[in-house]
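User: I'm putting together a teaching handout on how multi-component assemblies are represented. Below are the sequence lines for each component of a complex, exactly as they appear in our records. Could you produce the 3D structure of the whole assembly as structure tokens, so the students can see both representations side by side? Please keep the chain order the same as the input.
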Amino acid sequence: MADDDDYLGPVTVDRLPLIDENESSGTRQPMKSRVELHRRTVAPLMMWCAGVPRQGRASDADRTNGTQMDSLSDAETGELVSRARAGDAEAWEKLTDRYTGLLWSLGRGMRLSHTDTADAVQTTWLRLVEHLDDLRNPEGVGSWLVTTMRRECLGALRRSARTMTADGLDDIPAVGDDLDDALLRNERDAALWRAFAGLQPRCQALLRVLMSDPPPTYAEVSAALDMPVGSIGPTRQRCLALLRDSVMAAAYPFGAPSPGST
Amino acid sequence: MDRDNADLDNLRRIVRDVDPVPDEVFAAARAAIITRELDAELAALVADSTAMEDELRFDPVRTASTETADTRLLSFDGGGVRVELEVSGQADQLTVVGQLLGAADRDCVLEQADGHVLHVELDSLGRFLITGVTSGPARLRYRSESGGRVSTPWVWL
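Assistant: Of course. Below is the structure of the complete assembly, with chains in the same order as your input.
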């Protein structure tokens, strides 16, 4: 596990948070090497999840200023994979920063809940770690990730369909349901977002993926949505036209306003 | 086309406010590298009774009998060890019954993506029973009889 220590960078084992042994539920079996395993697996995971500073990622300030992260070229992406294979923690961080937003968009676009999307994104990264050394085409890691994510999302959707109550499919929340459009101070933004939430699922999924930051390549979009590269442009155009129609229809539900109506 | 780009830019700006990627999701992505195992062989998932892919499904007789019992069957093979798992129960109280053929009777653990690691006690036939397992990504790590480390891929229990 010497390599893991490299990933932890300057943080020494002594500074890892202590784990309360009593926290585990009573159903868990005692374990001889518990302390050792905690030190190796649990403690680092918890430390990372508690939020180690992320230097590589664009700060929230950058984001709200409208600055987009730069897309990486295929060669740069392939290079990051090679460096991550060799144990370069910074390269791994750059990879996760580059693609986590896209994976999130795909899950949310496929109408998974927050929790299910978070789980599917995590599982996708765990799978990349699993296959880091046998990835056949490191430059296409983005397509590999979205293909894996798509499969995880379909699995999550099937699991929730199995556990669903008699109300059936109506229980699947629309993507807009839990999004508070009071957050959107600008009425035009709110109208645009409501119209987006009312679009057909296929359009929502495509536009969500296209909206992700940094923008995906068409090869990645194609892999994410299982659609031919050639149909992305026309579908994008059609979906955005539908979106504009919907914004107009919502603004004037009974046609142009007539004088005297209140 | 310019109008399309402008609309998409607006949506991108809006979605950043209403549905940003949670920081924990970025943190979990970064932490995933900790699970890397350089010296373990990755077993292959060879059958899954809930798989969408035809080649992973069990034969129809077995599938039909298990669906009614609401039990999921999983098989893994690799590194000289065959693993059979039966998963049943509700989301946070899963029971996992399994058998490892060709495994050493030490160093077998069930690792969950939330960081929990459960020691798995194998009997003389390589069988085990775990109760109270939380659903979520998990994998088994074990040793073959010759001592080589093997791991199953992450599966959603």
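A couple of points students might notice: Residues 1-68, 165-178 of chain A have pLDDT under 50 and may be disordered. The two ends of chain A are 72 Å apart (CA to CA).
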